[in-house]
Write a structure and sequence with these properties.
The protein is built from 26 helices and 4 strands. With about 650 residues, the chain is mainly alpha-helical. Strand 3 and strand 4 form a beta hairpin.
Length: about 650
């Protein structure tokens, strides 16, 4: 009688596929395939202009007011905003050097996604690729909304007496996001209603995204020319603001220099980080760059240096035009357009004031447009690389036969950004973008450390100076800025990562060209393994969500209690946990009704195929975890519903 072999499940072997790397040589070979090739047309000047185009935009034109004065959750930096910009520049500088080393070794479009795949493994690469959607696509939603606000002001300022035009005023329901507009009577009452619901959306934000998408599909060379013109204009406008504003600066406004001490400076640095997002976008056009090993590091580092100089000088002029107490008393709407507000407040010449405000408003529109262009350029190329590796559907790596651009992914990205820009709130998008980008930066710095240990002999045309000191400082400084972000953004980021886990387990883990089911010699074993690590990713995602929700509640409790111990006791009560938080409820629902059924189907398919006893144990464990997650989530939903009903 034949004895069935008993094989114990080796967890290390089971999870090894999650962290299996794609060799740098394999990555470079894939890029040389004719069907994947893009047109190489960019030099160092164009790359630097792309970097400047991505960096100088909504951040400097929209966030400096809040960074200097503070908001409901954070104190402001005051005139020490200049120091905040320097701190953020140093943080970005550490990461920029790491990006430059990677870009010189791996001149591939995937940016941090590709770098992580080559150093930290597939699941980390997926997480960073999913995370980069926050930086580029979600960040662009915020930029599009901000662009629409400035363009609306430009339209209202148009005066053409010969045509009897005294400003072009658009209906509020066509220029406001739904969440904000539905709460404003002047918008809600005048908006058309369908089935009792108001029709409120930001048509200007949709329009600019559509135009940018068309330009990007047209071609990389045309996009570079368009960007160069816009970069030139916005540099002229910022120089104009500096020259005009400097004449009216009152040195007394710089005192006290740091009204809220180091805490205010640090909070300001975390807010203006949004103004620096974009230098890494240079690495996404690596496959369209001539001599990328030399030109990519130049473009990344040069653009960061140029923008830092402008930012520090603009911060000095801005805080010299308006005192900290006056700025703190301004409304959020006024602080959302800080440079024009500062000129209106600080200049006494009425004619010069109107002219200057008009010039800065137009420059802001141009600056926002350049950022939209570069971010919309970067996101499809991330999708392009992920699709080429099998982690996203093949449609994302299709290249236009004439324009040689990833046209379908560009169009899909445009549709995504335009849809959410029509209804999204800018403040939430900015905080989510900041934490997502900082997390990406941490993984890039970690990747440099890993590759220095694993592949020290690889040729590095550009090498980060100082050994491992700079990457370590990059990680620490990014964590430092994350600490000063609102805790609510941490929960939203956890929800986004959890959503990414569901997509990876459902599609990427099966279709990966490196570790997918089709590449496996033992499909049943693959099913058992993917069900097993899918179950543990579900546990990790749920634990992360609950931890972030608890931290959010703890921060809120500390505002109402004098001692942290009392705040901890408040968090341990059931009532706050049963209040509806959609960033907790929706991800848990995805786990219960999407991820868990996927795990169950994989596990049952593996059991039906038989196999080693060890793999049967893996499937049993997977089924138990999936059942625990699903039932636990359903019980929690019932409790939340009951609590809401009793409270109502």
């Amino acid at each position: 009688m034949e004895t069935k072999q008993v094989v114990k499940p080796n967890v290390g072997t089971t999870f090894r596929g999650l962290f299996r790397i794609k060799s740098l040589d394999s990555i470079l070979r894939d890029a040389e395939e004719p069907e994947y090739q893009l047109r190489r047309a960019l030099g160092p000047v164009q790359l630097t202009l792309f970097g400047v185009g991505a960096i100088i935009g909504a951040g400097i034109f929209a966030t400096v007011g809040t960074a200097a004065s503070g908001d409901a959750d954070r104190v402001g930096a005051g005139p020490a905003l200049m120091v905040s910009f320097i701190i953020t520049a140093v943080v970005c500088g550490f990461t920029a050097l790491c990006y430059a080393e990677f870009a010189s070794m791996v001149p591939i479009s995937g940016s941090a996604y590709t770098y992580s795949y080559a150093t930290l493994g597939e699941v980390v690469a997926w997480i960073i690729g999913w995370d980069l959607i926050i930086e580029y696509a979600v960040g662009n939603i915020a930029v599009a909304v901000s662009w629409a606000g400035y363009f609306k002001k430009v339209l209202e300022g148009i005066r053409i007496p010969a045509l009897h035009i005294d400003g072009i005023v658009m209906p509020l329901w066509l220029t406001t996001d739904y969440r904000s507009g539905s709460k404003l009577p002047e918008v809600y009452e005048h908006a058309p209603h369908i089935f009792g619901k108001p029709v409120i959306f930001n048509i200007l934000a949709v329009a600019i995204v559509a135009v940018i998408t068309i330009v990007l599909v047209w071609g990389i060379r045309e996009s570079a020319r368009f960007n160069a013109v816009m970069v030139g204009i916005k540099i002229v406008v910022l120089t104009f603001f500096i020259i005009v504003g400097f004449y009216w600066v009152e040195p007394a406004n710089w005192h006290p220099f740091a009204p809220n001490g180091w805490g205010g400076i640090s909070a300001g640095a975390a807010i203006v980080f949004f103004a620096y997002i974009g230098f890494d976008a240079v690495s996404t056009v690596a496959e369209e760059t001539k001599n990328p090993q030399r030109n990519l590091p130049i473009g990344i580092i040069a653009s960061l240096i140029i923008c830092t100089i402008f930012y520090v000088v603009v911060a000095a002029v801005f805080t010299g035009l308006i005192s900290y107490p006056e700025l703190a008393a301004m409304s959020p709407a006024a602080k959302a357009e800080p440079l024009t507000m500062a000129l209106e407040h600080g200049t006494s010449d009425l004619g010069l004031r109107h002219f200057s405000v008009g010039v800065v408003a137009i420059g802001s529109v141009i600056a926002h447009t350049a950022v939209l262009l570069v971010f919309q350029l970067g996101q499809p190329r991330i999708f392009f690389s992920m699709s080429r590796d099998g982690l996203l559907p093949k449609v994302f790596h299709k290249v236009h036969p004439r324009f040689r651009t990833p046209h379908i992914s560009t169009i899909l990205t445009g549709v995504f950004v335009a849809t959410f820009a029509a209804v999204a709130n800018i403040d939430e998008m900015v905080d989510l973008t900041n934490i997502g980008t900082l997390f990406a930066f941490i993984l890039v710095c970690a990747g440099i450390i890993v590759l220095r240990v694993k592949d020290p002999g690889r040729k590095r045309p550009f090498r980060v100076p100082g050994g491992l000191i700079i990457p370590v400082l990059g990680i620490v400084s990014c964590l430092y800025l994350i600490y000063y972000l609102p805790p609510t953004s941490w929960l939203r980021f956890a929800a986004w990562l959890n959503f990414g886990f569901v997509i990876y387990v459902g599609y990427g883990a099966v279709n990966s060209r490196l570790t997918g089911r089709k590449t496996s010699d033992h499909p049943a074993e693959h099913d058992a393994n993917t069900a097993y690590f899918g179950a543990f990713l579900g546990l990790i995602g749920a634990a992360l969500l609950l931890f972030m929700r608890g931290f959010d509640l703890w921060i809120a409790a500390t505002k109402d209690t004098e001692r942290q111990g009392s705040a901890f006791a408040a968090v341990m009560q059931a009532a706050p946990w049963l209040e509806v938080s959609w960033f907790l409820v929706v991800p848990l629902a995805l786990n219960a009704f999407v991820l868990c059924p996927i795990i169950v189907m994989r596990a049952l398919r593996a059991k039906a195929a038989g196999g080693a006893v060890g793999h049967q144990r893996l499937t049993n464990t997977s089924l138990a975890i999936a059942l625990f997650l699903a039932l636990g989530s359903i019980v929690y939903f019932i409790m939340v519903y009951a609590h809401s009903s009793s409270a109502g």
